[in-house]
Design a protein that fits this description.
membrane
Protein backbone atom coordinates (compact mmCIF):
# COMPACT_ATOMS: atom_id res chain seq x y z
CA UNK A 1 0.00 0.00 0.00
CA UNK A 2 2.96 2.33 0.56
CA UNK A 3 3.83 2.26 -3.12
CA UNK A 4 0.35 3.12 -4.36
CA UNK A 5 0.43 5.99 -6.85
CA UNK A 6 4.21 6.16 -6.68
CA UNK A 7 4.40 6.96 -2.97
CA UNK A 8 7.38 5.15 -1.48
CA UNK A 9 6.66 5.90 2.17
CA UNK A 10 8.24 2.86 3.77
CA UNK A 11 11.38 4.69 4.91
CA UNK A 12 9.33 7.54 6.39
CA UNK A 13 7.98 5.21 9.07
CA UNK A 14 11.55 4.51 10.21
CA UNK A 15 12.22 8.22 10.51
CA UNK A 16 9.20 8.57 12.79
CA UNK A 17 10.44 5.79 15.05
CA UNK A 18 13.92 7.28 15.07
CA UNK A 19 12.55 10.70 16.04
CA UNK A 20 10.51 9.13 18.84
CA UNK A 21 13.56 7.26 20.11
CA UNK A 22 15.64 10.45 20.11
CA UNK A 23 12.95 12.31 22.05
CA UNK A 24 12.72 9.54 24.66
CA UNK A 25 16.51 9.43 25.06
CA UNK A 26 16.61 13.23 25.51
CA UNK A 27 13.88 13.12 28.16
CA UNK A 28 15.70 10.38 30.09
CA UNK A 29 18.98 12.33 29.81
CA UNK A 30 17.37 15.51 31.18
CA UNK A 31 15.81 13.61 34.10
CA UNK A 32 19.11 11.92 35.00
CA UNK A 33 21.05 15.22 34.82
CA UNK A 34 18.47 16.95 37.01
CA UNK A 35 18.59 14.25 39.67
CA UNK A 36 22.40 14.15 39.65
CA UNK A 37 22.73 17.92 39.97
CA UNK A 38 20.47 17.88 43.03
CA UNK A 39 22.57 15.23 44.76
CA UNK A 40 25.81 17.02 43.85
CA UNK A 41 24.45 20.27 45.29
CA UNK A 42 23.52 18.50 48.51
CA UNK A 43 26.95 16.90 48.90
CA UNK A 44 28.72 20.20 48.13
CA UNK A 45 26.65 21.91 50.81
CA UNK A 46 27.53 19.21 53.34
CA UNK A 47 31.22 19.40 52.43
CA UNK A 48 31.31 23.18 52.82
CA UNK A 49 29.57 22.97 56.21
CA UNK A 50 31.98 20.27 57.36
CA UNK A 51 34.96 22.36 56.25
CA UNK A 52 33.59 25.44 58.02
CA UNK A 53 33.07 23.48 61.24
CA UNK A 54 36.62 22.15 61.01
CA UNK A 55 37.99 25.69 60.72
CA UNK A 56 35.75 26.85 63.57
CA UNK A 57 37.00 24.01 65.80
CA UNK A 58 40.61 24.88 64.99
CA UNK A 59 40.06 28.56 65.82
CA UNK A 60 38.43 27.62 69.12
CA UNK A 61 41.27 25.21 69.94
CA UNK A 62 43.83 27.98 69.31
CA UNK A 63 41.79 30.24 71.62
CA UNK A 64 41.17 32.78 68.85
CA UNK A 65 37.45 32.96 69.68
CA UNK A 66 35.49 32.74 72.92
CA UNK A 67 33.27 29.83 73.89
CA UNK A 68 30.18 32.00 73.44
CA UNK A 69 31.22 33.00 69.92
CA UNK A 70 32.14 29.38 69.13
CA UNK A 71 28.74 28.06 70.22
CA UNK A 72 26.90 30.80 68.35
CA UNK A 73 28.78 30.21 65.10
CA UNK A 74 28.47 26.43 65.43
CA UNK A 75 24.71 26.76 65.88
CA UNK A 76 24.53 29.07 62.85
CA UNK A 77 26.45 26.61 60.69
CA UNK A 78 24.46 23.54 61.72
CA UNK A 79 20.94 24.99 61.64
CA UNK A 80 18.62 23.85 58.86
CA UNK A 81 18.49 26.44 56.05
CA UNK A 82 15.83 24.79 53.90
CA UNK A 83 13.11 27.22 54.92
Amino acid sequence: MYHWYGMGGHWWSWLGWLALLIIVVLIVYIIVKTLNSRSEFSSKKENSTTEALKILNERYARDEISEEEYLHRKETLTEDRTR
